[in-house]
Amino acid sequence: MKMLIIVLVGLFQCSSNFPVTADVESMPEAPHQSVEDTYFPAESPFPRGVFFHATPPSEKYTAVVGWMQAIDIDGRGTSSKVEVSMMRLHATINGEDVILFEDYFQKSLSAYNYYKLYSREPWFDHEVAFMPYTINSSGLVMNPGSNPNCVYHWWDYHRSLVSFKATLVWFEATVRITGDAGVQIGMDYWEDLNCSDCSDEAGASPWYGSSTSEWQHIIVGK
Question: Three-class SS of residue 47?
Fold first, then answer.
């Protein structure tokens, strides 16, 4: 009951009239553009994707996390669905691909209960509530249209150590998007496994939408 109350309160807290101040034009574009590169929420600071760091930006960053987010693209509250069957984080070390983390959402874990809804405008200005989701045979499932003024945000449920010998770090996911929802994936580097407020953004993909009724394989960093 407590969880339900928090989510319902969040419905009225996600919107704001403050403008987004990120200078989108000065940000580097992702090296690999998607066919969906004109499909994105107007509020997003990275509408076409960015990529800053193929490996940790300095030796003090020893860990990495892959993340995803979803949104009702136009904020109209039209029913939509995002299904995630797999997330996988990789590093290339000594020329070989090493899997750092993978999750197939085969059962509900307590760590998923910490996934969040964030304000849409200003973008990620504050946490609103815990993210509503279900786990079924498809994996992680959510309806961004049920909270059109919020960004759905979820991530690897633990940080992964990354070797200083890594020459590339990248993240992939398999998703199915139905209706007017958009999905973006990205990565953050962290100084260690437990610190707070010690991260540096690696990059984010372009936004993906329901251009197909089939499962889509999306990648950032490769």
Answer: coil
